[in-house]
Amino acid sequence: AGEPCGGQLDASEAGYITTPGYPLEYPPHQDCRWVITAPEPSQRIVLNFNPHFELEKLDCRYDFIEIRDGNSDAADLLGRHCSNIAPPAIISSGPVLHIRFVSDYAHQGAGFSLRYEIYKTGKESPSLIVTQS
């Protein structure tokens, strides 16, 4: 049912995830899963949402995007979002994020678009710096 969507993504290059057809209405009966993985175990991933965000509102029961801090449905929930307010930036605690998008049979909206990339802290890991003596 619905459009093909989801997949395994590599965060070594920044990229985008959108609902099928964004910014047109997303199709009904979607259940999409994306897993984003950073190349290094010490790296984290940041998601930034486009402000044009629109998912059916009803308590996020029917249409929602869910972000988990790991590689499966069982990982810690970082957020479950719907309505027309885009979530703030989301940062993983480790190198993997799991994103799920679900829509029911009725009331579609524009959906979401997000950009994923490796989260840059102010300094890179000091273990990578070789000092000359």
From TrEMBL:
Q: Which UniProt keywords apply?
A: Disulfide bond, Membrane, Transmembrane, Transmembrane helix
Q: Which SMART domains match?
A: CUB (SM00042)
What CDD domains does the record point to?
CUB (cd00041)
Which membrane topology describes this protein? Answer: Single-pass type I membrane protein
Q: CUB domain: which residues?
A: 5-119
> What subcellular compartments does it reside in?
Membrane
UniProt GO cellular component terms: membrane
User: Which Pfam families does its entry note?
Assistant: CUB
User: What is the protein named?
Assistant: CUB domain-containing protein
